[in-house]
Write a structure and sequence with these properties.
globular; 5-stranded mixed β-sheet; Nucleotidyltransferase, domain 5; 42% helix; alpha/beta; 248 residues; 2 domains
Length: 248
């Protein structure tokens, strides 16, 4: 059976195709202002028996081409658990939200917490802060990783934090200290969500922001546990959606 999972997020759209359970195709494109066209682009030439959509745009997909949909929570639980069978706690930071998920030994969701009311601590937040410092995301993470200290960032609201960063720059505060302070503030926010669901090994960090090495290091330091990152953290949701198609 040939199946596909499509994760339509706020920043990217991921596709994973499975043939008899094995990954035979994967792709990732930007969502842009026209997600439907991007979906059509990424699915061009793809033939499957069943397509399952997840993410923010899953209902758009269901209205046009998806056979069924599942929530991101379920998709990430399935995907992370398949990559790391010992997974019990998941942190997913995407473009617009942050999720903390607790799963059992079969990958079933036990509990979850989600911060989706503002962009604080998400990929979008990092983009705005990097822009305020005139840096790319990778450069900002590199500076934060090598900083010898940090400054405290008081606000996690993207608008107020951007103003705060601009003020710190005007005061002559070194960029590495600001970058580190931003990453520490995000880490603290993530830890708050994780503690609400209970942190149990193994801890898996997924979503686009999992590519950030400074945040991964900070999480490991604060948790006192290893933090596992899938080889392609942006495709875990699509992988989980595809896996769900094989359950019937």
């Amino acid at each position: 059976m040939r199946v596909a999972g499509l994760d339509i997020g706020s920043r990217t759209i991921g596709l994973v195709v499975l043939d008899d359970g094995d990954v035979v195709h994967r792709d990732l494109v930007e969502t842009t202002f026209d997600p439907l066209s991007q979906c059509q682009k990424i699915l061009n030439g793809i033939e499957v028996d069943l397509l399952v959509a997840t993410g923010y745009g899953r209902h758009l997909a269901q209205a046009h081409f998806a056979h069924r949909v599942i929530t991101e929570i379920t998709a990430f639980a399935l995907g992370c658990h398949r990559v790391f069978p010992g997974c019990r706690t998941i942190l997913d930071i995407g473009g617009q939200d942050t999720k903390a998920i607790s799963v059992d030994d079969s990958g079933r969701v036990v509990e979850f917490q989600m911060n989706d009311r503002c962009a604080a601590g998400t990929g979008k937040f990092l983009e705005v802060m990097a822009g305020a410092m005139k840096l790319g995301l990778e450069d900002m993470a590199r500076l934060a990783l090598g900083a010898g200290g940090s400054v405290k960032i008081s606000s996690m609201c993207a608008v107020f934090a951007e103003s705060e960063v601009t003020s710190l720059i005007a005061q002559g505060t070194p960029l590495p200290l600001i970058a580190r302070g931003l990453h520490e503030a995000i880490c603290d926010r993530c830890l708050s969500l994780l503690r609400r669901v209970g942190v149990r090994e193994e801890v898996v960090f997924a979503g686009g922001v999992a590519l950030n090495p400074c945040l991964r290091e900070l999480l490991e330091e604060r948790l006192g546990l290893p933090v596992l990152v899938p080889p392609e953290p942006q495709l875990v949701g699509a992988y989980g959606a595809a896996l769900s198609a094989l359950r019937d």
